[in-house]
Amino acid sequence: MLRYIILLVINLLFVSVPLSAQTKKMRQVTEPERSKIAEWLDLTDSIPVFQGVSVMTDLVGPGWYAFGGDFFSSEVALEVNLLNRFFPVLEVGYGRTDATNEDTDLHYKTAAPYFRVGLNYNVQYKKKSPGYIFAGGRLGYTSFEYDVDGPPMTDPVWGNEVPFRFSGIKGQALWAELMIGVRAEIYKNFHMGWSFRYKVRLNVKDSPNASPWYIPGFGASDNTAFGATYDIVYRIPWK
């Protein structure tokens, strides 16, 4: 049944727009075209479309902090397996930092949840093995508050010192991630694997007083950032 629903969605997505303002007729995908799309998606194969659900957690974030890092993050993810080829993913995490820059003596503090949604693509889907290499993408978002303080500043006109301390600054961030990774089965229904991510800021809400130095889920607030995860995965048995 799910196979036919996907084919129906494909048919609706490939409905063409009118060729002119006077033409109201809509051209639907022909049966040969639909068959080629279904063949590319493996919808004509005998394997079920729905292959199960996995839950996972990342060990890099807590491990980095445990060994003296400035940032702490912890996240869990829910992944759906479709045709052992497409893996829609929802990631929910929590990130925080409470750090002081030794060079500038600036102190920065924040803590907030973050969310990512995206898709993994199994490039080895034809092998139908429990482990695979994948490529994927994510869209991340967080809404957070941060505190910034540091040494007092000298007023250039009057020469007196002005305190530099701001609390409860509200911020929001939206970013995109491209990633590659590998996953291997270590025991029945248990997997582990690495992923490497390239992150790009799409939109960050700044304050006129101070820009966010660390963004939960993204990292240190440059325009781009690199990240990695080491995931422990449990695949919920499904027949």
Describe this structure in words.
The chain is 12% helix and 56% strand. It folds into two domains: 1-46, no CATH class; 50-236, Porin (Beta Barrel). Residues 12-26 have low confidence and may be disordered. It has an eight-stranded antiparallel beta barrel. Strands 8-9 form a two-stranded antiparallel sheet. It is mainly beta and 239 residues long. A hairpin with a 6-residue loop joins β5 (132-154) and β6.
Could you write a compact summary of the structure shown?
With 239 residues, the chain is mainly beta.
Radius of gyration: 24 Å
Shape: elongated
Sketch the topology as an H/E string, one letter per element: HHEHEEEEEEEEE
Average pLDDT figure: 84
Major β-sheet annotation: 8 strands, antiparallel, barrel
Distance between the termini: 16 Å
Query: What's the domain count?
Result: 2
Architecture of the largest domain, according to CATH?
A: Beta Barrel
List the uncertain runs. Answer: 12-26
Q: Which structural class best describes the helix and strand composition?
A: mainly beta
CATH fold field value of the largest domain? Porin
Kindly state the number of beta strands.
Answer: 10
Number of helices: 3
